[in-house]
Amino acid sequence: MTEDHIIGNNIRQFRERLEMSQQELAGFLGVTTPLISYYETGSRSVPTDKIDKLASLFGVDAYDLFEENAAHHTANTAFAFRASELVNSDLEQIAQFRKVVKNYINMKTLLQRGQTEEREGSGS
Fold it and tell me: What is the DSSP string of 74-94?
């Protein structure tokens, strides 16, 4: 499976998990619905700026979109919602919120890891 096919498959799986249509995702990304279909089938490469925007919306790291079956093993860090009930500005806010939550979790993990290492280092 090519990288474009892996990314496309993950986009489709994450989109379906959010019960979002291709048309809604196209509106969020500012592209046409047929282009979303091309992305999902791996017929077209997804530009880096769109990868970043998709990762924020899906609540994952951008590199997760490059892993086979990422949607099956990636935990959602924020919350689930029904995209059909939202407008593009809502989706933008959700994507930004998810990015903040993900960054907070990463920072908290790093802080805890640093405190653990500090305790282990002073206990010697």
Answer: PPPSS----GGG--HHHHHHH
